[in-house]
Amino acid sequence: MKETVIQVQHLSKKYRLGEIGTGALSQDIERWWKMRVMGQEDPFLKVGNTSTAGTSGSVYSLKDISFEIKQGEAVGIIGKNGAGKSTLLKLLSRVTAPTSGHIRLKGRVASMLEIGTGFHPELTGRENIYLNGAILGMNRREIDRKLDEIIDFSGVEQYIDTPVKRYSSGMYVRLAFGVAAHLESEILIIDEVLAVGDAEFQRKCLGKMGDAKTKDGRTVLFVSHNMAAVTTLCQRAILLEKGEMAFDGPAREGVEQYLQSNNPDVNQEKSWLPGEGPGDYRGQLSQVMVAPASGNIFSVSAGLRLDFRLVSRTPGLRINLAFEIITPDQILVLQHGIALADGKAVEPGNYEISVDIPGNLLNKGQYLVNVWLGGSFRPVKRFENVIGFTIEHTQIDHIMVALPGILRPVLEYQLKFTSSVSDSPNE
Q1: Closest CA to 62 of 97, 113, 107, 110
Q2: CA nearest neighbour of 217 among 186, 190, 191, 189
Q3: Domains annotated on the chain, with CATH
Q4: Which residues pair with 74 in a beta bridge?
Q5: With contact defined as beta carbons under 8 Å apart, do 266 and 290 qualify?
Q6: What is this structure's pTM?
């Protein structure tokens, strides 16, 4: 059984609201004397502000968080902005201290909380590699062994002896990630590393984090708003909401709960009053619906039907209707569409368009529908998250459990007997 390398017990972090001090001891004393003793107004209050000095207002960034992480686990920390994700990583990285609770870490921690955290801007890239390694407790020989690999991964060989203050943000983050990922630490903490850098660099980052977890047996904590990256890299997710832990379990389930909380108003049907639907004064959608093609439950085998209702008010209007089915983490599953009247102008009036999507195509999971209007609409109008639906698992053939992936077709296999073999492998 793998040992626990991170243990968090009843962790809380509270911040005080308002201005704490003026920046000068003499002014702080004068403020205290005038306000607390003399009962006068704050002498250093800025025009248009109300005094916050001396108030007891506070806010919890984290409140009573507890969890354990085993060696070699990759855990995604997810949640909305302000949920407390970065605060949690700062506490785990010892950047700040908790208000209450305890943290126990076993092993060295390499963290990348912001672009170039721990870098000295006046030092060169090479010097910063050695500085970060020394902070982690590594000797020069250990850093020498990793140096070429870090430089090659970062792609900044030409500028490795240039002060990092002259680096672009992309160069900065590549080197910072290279240092954090390659130096020998047991725990790797990464905060939004994929927010900077091109697609190739992002793939390299994900690959390196995957290697750190599987090959090196390191523990990875990963904060990102890229839900596809979280589900790819992590088996487990911790969802934070308003500083409290709302979910701790399988990554896919945590991502689905997070995405569902971000789209609380997405339903299986959307209708608009006349003149209010997507489009313009010439033509508009009036309704979009989705329903199972058979039965009453969205299941893998049932299939589904999409119904669109629109109105054309202007003679000579050409209407192209298209739709997208996407996952909540923005992976495109299907895009399709139709040009009404084969692309010719349609008469003013109301129109209904229906399309069936066969069963045994989409897998279990949540899906959203985007709608496009084109033809005479310039530029093409795109409307996101118009409706949504959730497909439930159903048994297919001999497969009893839900399988990962987006597609779940029924496939035909051919089995052919070619020849017999003897019982003994030596014959």
Answers
A1: 97
A2: 186
A3: 72-258 (3.40.50.300), 269-391 (2.70.50.60)
A4: 220
A5: no
A6: 0.62
